Amino acid sequence: MELEGAVAVVTGAASGIGRSLARALALDAGAVVVVADIDGTGAEAVANEIAAEAAAGSPVGFAAEIDMTDEAAVVALIDGVEESLGPIEVWCGNAGISAMGGVERPNEEWNRIWDVNLMAHVIACRHLVPRWVERGSGHLLVTASAAGLLTGLGTASYAVTKHAAVALAEWIAITHGDDGVRVSCLCPQGVRTPMTESDRMLGVAQV
């Protein structure tokens, strides 16, 4: 697809894979990128990096502090981006969290990981896919994990929710592919990010 001038939103973009996606889309592909993260300060820093390194005269996006599990906030972000920058052509759902342990972990922890790793994608797609179908184009990129294809040793909730994210990406691709909606699903393993540096069994060295 042609990304030059396209509007792209990257969630979880304050660090790690999200930061790299935002930088690549903006600086290499020429997209207008919105850097979204629950860490507003980190998102602002990445947006400022991009703006400082962008070619003179290139259109730039902005930073947004947002909890991707808050549906009202997601709708407000989508509406705000489309009103100020234009139609969102690419949505990179990259926000994710993990926790060690298995089925013994409390429901509150399972529910939080479920909300971030799966339902954030569902919420975004609920409001983006109908727009893309109407326009006849749009691209969803879901950052899942190798744990969504195999499993995640030591972290049941991460493995289960990443499997679910892969399944959702497959469903949208099959259901809406003929409507012009394109889907990519990233399943990386052992990427050196703040999350893997802080989790023992999810860490790069362990992988």
The percentage helix is 40-55%
**Strand order of the biggest β-sheet:** 3-2-1-4-5-6
Radius of gyration, whole Å: 17 Å
Put simply, the count of helices is 6
Low-confidence stretches: none
Could you say which overall geometry the principal axes of the C-alpha atoms support? globular
* Annotation, overall tally of beta strands: 6
Strand content: 15-25%
Order of helices and strands: EHEHEHEHEHEH
CA distance, first residue to last residue: 33 Å
The structure class reads: alpha/beta
Major β-sheet annotation: 6 strands, parallel
Mean pLDDT: 93
Show the helix and strand layout.
Blueprint: E1 7-11, H1 16-28, E2 32-37, H2 40-53, E3 63-65, H3 71-84, E4 88-93, H4 107-135, E5 138-143, H5 156-176, E6 181-186, H6 194-198
Parallel strand pairs: 1-2, 1-4, 2-3, 4-5, 5-6
Helix pairs in contact: 1-2, 3-4, 4-5
Question: Your description of this structure?
Answer:
The chain has 207 residues and is of the alpha/beta class. It is built from six helices and six strands. It has helices spanning 16-28, 40-53, 71-84, 107-135, 156-176, 194-198, and strands at residues 7-11, 32-37, 63-65, 88-93, 138-143, 181-186. The protein has a six-stranded parallel sheet with strand order 3-2-1-4-5-6, sandwiched between helices. Helix 5 (156-176) links the parallel strand 5 and strand 6 (181-186). Helix 1 (16-28) runs parallel beside helix 2 (40-53) and helix 4 (107-135) runs parallel beside helix 5 (156-176). The longest helix is centred in the middle third of the chain and has 29 residues, at 107-135. It is globular. The termini are far apart.
